[in-house]
Design brief:
Layout: E1 19-20, H1 21-28, H2 32-41, E2 48-49, E3 55-57, H3 59-74, H4 79-88, H5 109-132
Antiparallel strand pairs: 1-3, 2-3
């Protein structure tokens, strides 16, 4: 693979080939509904849409998804903070050890985990309620 090839893709396709939402989801470990939601939240993420609304991700789209994933899931940004970082150009490349982390737009990771745990508990409660009904 070349340097431009999306990492995680060992499908034998040309590195510049378009990828379906299923291929991107599988390669990056992100569920398809999350990718669709991110399209709504991040205007800069806009894969090609062909007949029937089928999505095709270009190399740049895949890199954008990777950046959003890194900001939200590894660096603890909220979606709003990640969007602000992307619009400001602060998230173009992966941060280096010497690069300062933006503090104004990031939610502390511990707080993020607390919110996530609460959401999982609420989801479990809702699922149980649906199964009892």
């Amino acid at each position: 693979m070349t340097a431009d090839a999306p990492p995680g893709f060992a499908d034998g396709k040309d590195p510049e080939a378009l990828r379906t939402i299923g291929e991107v989801a599988k390669a990056l470990g992100i569920r398809q509904h999350v990718l669709r939601y991110w399209e709504e939240q991040f205007p800069m993420l806009s894969p090609l849409k062909r007949g029937g609304g089928r999505r095709y991700y270009r190399v740049g789209d895949v890199k954008m998804v990777e950046t959003i994933d890194r900001l939200v899931h590894r660096e603890g940004y909220t979606l709003k903070g990640a969007k602000m970082a992307l619009q400001g150009g602060a998230a173009k490349a992966a941060p280096t050890a010497a690069a300062p982390q933006p503090q104004a737009t990031a939610t502390p990771v511990a707080t993020n985990f607390a919110y996530r745990a609460r959401l999982i508990a609420l989801r479990t409660t809702l699922v149980n309620a649906l199964h009892e009904a």
